[in-house]
Amino acid sequence: MEQLLKIGVSACLLGQEVRFNGGHCNHRFLTHSFSKYAVFEPVCPEVAIGMGIPRKSVRLERDDADSNMVRMIEPKSGHDYTDDMVAYSAEKAAELNDLDGFVFKKNSPSCGVFRVKIYQNDQPSERRGIGLFAQAVMERYPELPVEEEGRLSDPFLRENFVERVFAYRRVKDLFDRKWSRRDVIEFQAREKLLLMAHAPHKAKLLGQLVGRIKQSQRDDFATAYIQAYMDCMNTNPSKGRHTNAMMHMAGYLKNKLSQSGRAELASVISDYRNGYVPMTVPMALMQHMIRRLEEGYLVNQTYLAPHPRDLALRNHV
């Protein structure tokens, strides 16, 4: 990767004092660890539409006249910010056409992605909403990796998000230059085991798409491939699928390893599957064996290092 990633971020997560109470929610992983590999595009939709700092809190309310319509309301005054927020969100989303990922502020009526509270009349709130700005971004860029900062505290979700961000950048870089059929085939070969760890069935369909590349127009194929690739990558991997991918790798080594070497590798993979060791343990042994045995196909697998090692994202998954 020749350039830094470009990541959209709710501005308060970068330490900007734009919260409704005039504070911020600086996220240390973003500002201290991930910042070495990314430039950030800060966005605060509420400030952008003129709501001020500090400001009265707003919330999402279901429209009584149209149950499918959710509005952004300031409950104390009844002021409706929906039209302003929807118009801004559409305009701003259109500008963010070169992002590699987005981290949103959880629970926010503008930026929340998962389980944002929706109110209706005097009924208890329902955690089934999406912030109006986040929804506009996600609808315009369905392949874009997105996450909430609260969920980044989960080591599994953090590793998965960063993995998807780097994957999105790689596949875009592939088609942003003058590419050939051979380039795509080689890219698909390098990504095979990573895709298998996310969604084996979708990975197989992606391989079939590559097999039909000669029958497609270039632009149509690029669009279809990026969509299918990210559909696969945006499917969360599991310990079982990771184990399956590792066993697949071990299959390439079995004829080059001694009986004791095969047993050692199988034992470490089993320990990972059973939760006794983190993912770094079988992967480190696998990398050592691949280098020692000079297994060319596996050396180039993205799955071995889908993100920078110093982020230590696989130490706790």
TrEMBL record:
Top-rank taxon: Bacteria
Stored Pfam families: 2-thiour_desulf, DUF1722
Positions of the DUF1722 domain: 192-308
Protein name: DUF1722 domain-containing protein
UniProt organism field: Terasakiella brassicae
UniProt cross-references to InterPro entries, sorted A to Z: 2-thiour_desulf (IPR007553), DUF1722 (IPR013560), UCP037004 (IPR017087)
